[in-house]
Write a structure and sequence with these properties.
single chain
């Protein structure tokens, strides 16, 4: 229990650190610019759709995938799981900060489908969603909703989730 509490404290401390932009005429918005109310909506949306993972290792809490060396257990408290979800989402927001006001939307999607599935890595190409955002095209509804399949099959519950996330988090 002590190890879990220490790990959560370290995660929260790391999330509180601010990365300073170096050079350049404009920098992407910092995670502090995401309104708390919007961040809380994203957390509630993820909780509602992910649900409690219970004893479904390697996932614990609200969908946190255990990384090598992590000692979180399925019997963590709801408060610990909430804190872990918030830390994960904040980390993804920092990673997605280059997408400006839609950083939270992209971070929420990457929490579910994986960051590198969106931005590409190695043999994984960039998604059309990221290509459009990088080109400055913010007409991304169809690309966002396209992440509604599992094993190549359209899943209505995932489609409903994507539509809800887009409605809640997209900033025109």
């Amino acid at each position: 229990m002590r190890v879990i509490a220490t790990a959560i404290c370290l995660i929260l401390i790391c999330c509180g650190m601010v990365v300073q932009a170096q050079g350049g005429s404009s920098s992407p918005p910092a995670t502090e610019q995401i309104p708390d109310s919007l961040f809380n909506k994203a957390v509630a949306c993820i909780k509602g759709h992910e649900g409690w993972h219970g004893n479904h290792l390697p996932y614990v809490g609200y969908g946190h995938k255990l990384l090598p060396g992590e000692t979180f257990t399925p019997d963590m408290s709801e408060a610990q799981a909430d804190s872990l979800l918030r830390a994960d989402l904040m980390k993804l927001c920092r990673m997605c900060s280059r997408f400006g006001k839609n950083a939270l939307l992209v971070a929420t999607l990457s929490y579910n489908v994986g960051y590198y599935r969106l931005v590409g890595y190695g043999k994984i190409p960039k998604s059309r969603l990221i290509q459009k955002l990088e080109a400055g095209d913010r007409d991304i509804y169809n690309e966002y909703i396209s992440f509604r399949c599992y094993k190549g099959k359209l899943i209505p519950s995932i489609e409903r989730r994507r539509k809800k996330e887009f409605r809640l988090l997209y900033i025109p």
